[in-house]
Structure formats: C-alpha cells, structure tokens
Amino acid sequence: MERTLDRSYRRAAVILGSRVEAEDAVQDAAEKAWRAWSSLADRDRFEAWFGRILLNVCRDRLRRRRRISAIEAVPLEEDHDQATGDPTAGSDGVDRLRRLLGSLSPDERIVVVLRYEADLTVPAIAALIGVAEGTVKSRLHHALARLRAIEEAQRS
Fold it and tell me: Taking the CA of residue 58 as centre, how many other CA atoms within 13 Å lie in the half-sphere pointing to its CB?
C-alpha cells in the first residue's frame, strides 16, 4: 500500500505541477477508494483500480483549475526546496516543463505523463484510463505537436 501511495503521489505531482495539490489529490483518491472499496471485485487489481481513481481526481482538478484560470491567473507553485524530495521542484528545466505541461488539456497532460514519466505503453495507458488505444495515440500526437509548436515559438 505504501508503495502504491508513493507512486501515486509522484504521478499526481507531475500531472498537477504542485506537491501540495498532489497530496490533496492522493488524499481525495484514497477517500474515494475507501468509500468504493466494496465495488472492487478483484483485490489483486487494487493498484490499477486506485490509479484510475487518482487519474480521475487529477483530471477533475486540472479542469477546475482551467475554469478558475479563465477568471484569474493561477501561477504554478514556486516552491523549489530540494530537501523536501518534491518531484516537481528543481531546476529551470523542470519549471519550463511545468509550464509546457500546463499548456495541455487535462486529457493530453495525463497521457503525456503516463507515457513519459510513468513509462507506460499505449495499451497500458488505454486500459488504465478506460479509452481506446487510438484515443491515447491521438492525444499523445496532438499534445506533442502542441509542445513542439510552443518550443518553436519560444526559439523565434
């Protein structure tokens, strides 16, 4: 269970770009899992089941953040304390990556993080988030195209 929570926290921190929000997301997911425990048919699939709950919580938070940011700008967390072991804190490269990920839609951001941070295959991502493999490929394609366009615009 501890390993699942650690992995879930790291994944949520990268998706959300904030260690504080990641902690809240994991807490919310754990609460949802606790309430829905009786609906889990196969206890051996707990990690995948919990992962899907966490991704849904993260997606909801990203969507809520986009609605709020339409009204007022919500800056990414500026905490760069290396001693905390925060997977989102660090160098300018990490800050740049956070800003780039922030430009993606919640669904695109999730598939990019699962593919490149969690190193999951397209079929594994499709099974985890409950969409067709073609949908995952499409989201990855569009997300990477958007990231390339932003990079090119910044170089110009």
Answer: 33
Written as one string, the DSSP assignment of the chain is -HHHHHHHHHHHHHHHS-HHHHHHHHHHHHHHHHHTGGG-S-GGGHHHHHHHHHHHHHHHHHHHHHHHHHHS--PPP----GGGT-TT--SHHHHHHHHHHHTS-HHHHHHHHHHHTS---HHHHHHHHTS-HHHHHHHHHHHHHHHHHHHHHHH-
Is CATH 2.60.200.30 what the domain over 2-155 is classified as, yes or no?
Answer: no
pLDDT per residue over 33-65, tens digit each? 999 988 888 888 888 889 999 999 999 998 887
pTM of the entire predicted model: 0.62
